[in-house]
Amino acid sequence: MRHHPSRKRLRGRGYLSRLGPGIVSGAADDDPSGIATYSQIGAATGFRLVWGVVFLLPFAFAVQEACARLAIVTGHGLAGIIRTRLPRPVLYISVVLVAIANTVNIAADLASMAAALNLILPIPQMLGVVGFAVVILVLEILVPYHRYAKFLRWLCLSLVAYVAVLFVVQVPWAEVEMNAAVPHFLWAKADIALLIAMAGTTISPYLFFWQSAEEVEARNAEGVAGADRGHMRAMRGDVAAGMLATVVVAGAILVTAAATLNANGIMNIQTAEQAAQALAPIAGPFASLLFLIGIVGTGLLTVPVLAGATSYALAETFGWSESLEKKPTQARAFYAIILLSILVGLALNLGGIDAIQFLIIAAIINGLTAPFLMAVIWWLARDKKLMGRWASRWWSQGLVALATLAMAGLPVLWLLAP
Hints:
Blueprint: H1 15-18, H2 21-29, H3 32-45, H4 50-74, H5 78-85, H6 88-120, H7 125-142, H8 145-155, H9 160-165, H10 173-181, H11 189-202, H12 205-222, H13 229-260, H14 272-283, H15 285-318, H16 332-350, H17 355-381, H18 384-387, H19 394-416
Helix pairs in contact: 2-12, 2-13, 2-15, 3-11, 3-13, 4-10, 4-11, 4-12, 4-13, 4-17, 4-19, 5-15, 6-7, 6-14, 6-15, 6-16, 6-17, 7-15, 7-16, 11-17, 11-19, 12-15, 14-15, 15-16, 17-19
């Protein structure tokens, strides 16, 4: 059975089997480093910034929808489109920044997964890091894409752990609803820095490349020659499902941290596994276990996406043969980049660099890269010479433009804030 063999219609029996690139991209957004970020925000601010997660949903959807639209119409990934339509320096800057951020993020996620596993089973940290790296490499390199995509979709279920945690903690829902509906924050560097972290974690550059690349994979697997109205509707449903899952899970993590950690005076959480440890005496060992299982599951989903996004970007940049459907002998350079990305992430861990430093470096690079890439996506998706009748509509252009301005403007607000 091929990967969602027909995504040309939105409704009807078997729709869940047709969900693919969108739902995987959305689930991969809540990686262990993202879990740490949302936990930090909830612990530090309580429910004050819950509105930010809700506010980001339409922007995240618009950006990912534009990436998917570009790929479906042109049959090329994002880097390949930039290569043909924009000056080479734009391409090289984009790909280099994303490759560095992804590799550092892989290192952070491997460290978080190993630390979480160590809290469940007495397995040494470094052994866990090596073990996860090997398992991910074997699956991504040796398993054909149509089977691998099914595996990734099943891993999306790990996100349910964070929604389940809400059922074992005491949450003041009236307060959550009020803070979700009414935006407010303190005019201070601390709050604005957390908003920057939230935005950068939710709208992540590696997802732009992954979304477009996997849309091409899906298009090739389905034998679709180009875009049609039904396919576009179904694509939007897929992307909407993925981004909604991202926001729901991010909100669940933030609310859980606020209702447990912040409410009990624990306001300084650095990593996702620290959040899980702190949950145990407050919400019980079951809540802590669910949190830890979620870290491992989302890491198994996200690390292959990070490595794959880097490989697709570089392969499109240099015109290499690319596809997770091909055997390693048919796309040597493509798979070599996947191998190298994970091995460098492994080496950074073995070098003894603190995982928190990985998160800070990745956040800074993503924060610099995201607005730049979003402006590029806005420009390409509205280009009628490239997209024809499938150029982005006014609502999509407006949302992507607003998201770009907001992502670029937040660092300026941080500089101005006391």
